[in-house]
Amino acid sequence: MTYTESVQAQLEALRKKEHVRILSLETSCDETAASIVEDGRTIVSNVVFSQIDLHALYGGVVPEIASRAHVEACDRVVDQALKEAGMTLQDVDALAVTYGPGLVGALLTGVSCMKGLAYAANKPLVPVNHIEGHVSANYLTHPDLKPPFVCLVVSGGHSHLVRVTDYGCYELLGQTTDDAAGEAFDKAARVLTLPYPGGPRIDKLAEEGDPHYMQLPHPHTPGRYDYSFSGMKTAFLNAANKLEMKGEPLPKADMAASFRYAVVSALVEKAVLAATETGAPALAMAGGVSANSLLRRMMQEACDKAGIPLYMPRLNLCTDNAAMIASAAYYRLMKGELAPLTLNAMPALRLV
Ligand code: KG4
Ligand code: ZN
Hints:
Distance between the termini: 36 Å
CATH superfamily of the largest domain: ATPase, nucleotide binding domain
Number of domains: 2
Shape: globular
Structural class: alpha/beta
Number of strands: 10
CATH class of the largest domain: Alpha Beta
CATH architecture of the largest domain: 2-Layer Sandwich
Strand content: 15-25%
Bound molecules: 5'-O-[(R)-(carboxyoxy)(hydroxy)phosphoryl]adenosine, zinc ion
Largest sheet: 5 strands, mixed
Order of helices and strands: HEEEHHEHEHEEEHHHHEHEHH
Number of helices: 12
């Protein structure tokens, strides 16, 4: 029997199994992560190796350095995830890997590693969209959450409002017309000469500042649920340049607080509008920016006011991890969506 025939034959038995355990690997950007999750909902082990220290020196992710570091870390994080779960490769039912979107070289190391493991262990391999992984972090945190719901996806590369109609099924409600929210935070942090990664630094500094120190433009967007952050970013940069030309020190905490307030207000306003107007039974948040403390507070307040249940991932599941990839993989596996051994990295893979 070929590998393909063998894994297809395993599918029927897997669907009837009481518990299905998936071992996942995530290497799309600057985190090498592996995890074992049971039934898409219960984390058995979750290992994240962050490369932040390697890239901090350059003020951002250096793709070549990221790929190299993934190659070195892949085997180690997979071994560690198995060890922490007290399992061997034979104890897991299927494997999963992020195949896009992300840095092509970084993705390729993970895809190659898991194709090799899947073939060697004769286990099904599930290809996972990284952004779907972020959405699925909510299933790990909230066992009661089921589609349909509206989800605000805010990461380093994405700012989307989607309707999750079923597991793995999405309709686009709105998106950014320029920068992603995380990207905007990272760029503003650079203006304030804060170290990479900027988003969490701005968030922390903002706690000590005045959010009304400066007013940033609230842009007009083509679609009702679209976002735009480039105008805010330019106004922010101009204000910093003006102060510098006058030889005045930047009031960094006040500026960070004002920028955070402007971005978060826009995110909250459109997300709650979309959830209300589409009659969504719940609103969820996903992606690195959903770790932002003001976003979590303001979204909770707005949802309480609008009477919409709000779901957000636990803090350590907001940023990149492999548990969310295994959760997404579970529902894809149950639908019979397996990767061929020719699976390739897709750096520009879309969710919708
Ligand atoms: O989802 P993620 O870990 O990676 C991508 O898939 O892009 O998101 C990373 C982004 C970065 O832009 C980072 O600055 C931002 O999320 N981020 C935050 C916070 N934590 C991470 N932005 C604002 N506040 C935070 N607390
Ligand atoms: Zn991510």
